[in-house]
Design brief:
By secondary structure, this protein is of the alpha/beta class. The chain has a domain of about 180 residues: Rossmann fold, CATH 3.40.50.300. Helices cover about 40% and strands about 25% of the residues. A six-stranded mixed beta sheet has the order 6-7-8-3-9-10, with helices on both faces. A four-stranded antiparallel beta sheet has the order 2-1-4-5. Strand 7, helix 8 and strand 8 form a beta-alpha-beta unit. Helix 5 crosses helix 6 and helix 5 packs parallel to helix 7. The longest helix has 18 residues. It starts with 5 loop residues before the first strand and ends in a 10-residue tail after the last helix.
Length: about 260
């Protein structure tokens, strides 16, 4: 077993003027845990995910990786490389996360060259098994981002992060653009990959069923505040906050059953 890695938020908050997007909170994601962060649009969950990976800076408090301040790591090239090699982030907006002038082969291979120092042949050997895992055709590597559907781009964004072999993976709405028919397969793949490779998972979503499937712990956010945090089954069986009860009731009354992840 590899040495565990810890990503922590310590008394962290984020404000934009008078608007408090994330109220003060403490949390931890390790390379042996999976945390689901769930809430409706505007709850602050995506802002929280960006803070955790250093794409935004907290107004108060800090984020640490194995005790090292993430803000300090980002001040040096070596620190940034170590952070990106250890923690990977898959954003919800996949269109803007790809350079439209570069093929998908270049996009997926670049982090392997920059973060792991692999040459073209070695990078190819790492990329192809991940594409197969995500059910992406290899010929798509020659295409450009605009030539893919939203769901295909989302899976390529996931592939780009997985090839790095991070210790912690942060996913922001990674199945929201996928057809329901393939959501279950992708969720199974994420969970199995994280368990087999000892990768910690932070899974951000408004979809409670998907989040509960991949996460051992649930953190529920409402208007920037953490209103519930505990083991997944405990939160589902005995929620203590009215907002969590409302979320659960909404899914149970919804027109579709809870997501089938048996695929």
């Amino acid at each position: 077993m590899r040495k565990p890695v810890s990503l922590r938020a310590e008394a962290m908050s984020r404000s934009f003027g008078r608007h408090v997007a994330v109220q003060p909170l403490d949390l931890e994601i390790t390379s042996t845990t999976s945390l689901g962060i769930v809430g409706e649009s505007g709850s602050g969950k995506s802002t929280l995910s960006r803070l955790l990976v250093g794409l935004d800076r907290p107004t108060e408090g800090r984020v640490t990786l194995d005790g090292a301040d993430v803000a300090q790591l980002l001040r040096s090239r070596a620190g940034t490389r170590d952070l990106r090699r250890t923690v990977q982030y898959v954003a919800q907006d996949t269109f803007s996360s790809f350079d439209p002038r570069r093929t998908l082969r270049d996009a997926v291979a670049t982090p392997l060259r920059v973060l792991r120092g692999l040459d073209r042949d070695a990078a190819e050997a790492e990329i192809l098994p991940v594409l197969d895992l995500l059910k992406l055709e290899r010929r798509m590597l020659e295409r450009y981002p605009a030539q893919l559907s939203g769901g295909q781009r989302q899976r390529f964004a996931l592939a780009r992060s997985l090839v790095v072999k991070p210790r912690i993976l942060l996913c922001d709405e990674v199945v929201s653009a996928l057809d329901v028919s393939v959501q279950g397969a992708v969720l199974n793949m994420i969970r199995d990959f994280c368990e087999s490779e000892e990768v910690g998972l932070g899974f951000v979503s408004h979809g409670l069923p998907a989040t509960a499937f991949v996460a051992d712990e649930l953190l529920v956010m409402c208007r920037g505040e953490v209103v519930e945090h505990g083991p997944t089954q405990q939160v589902l069986d005995a929620p203590t906050h009215p907002y969590t009860v409302t979320l659960l009731d909404a899914y149970r009354r919804g027109p579709r059953p809870l997501l089938d992840v048996s695929a």
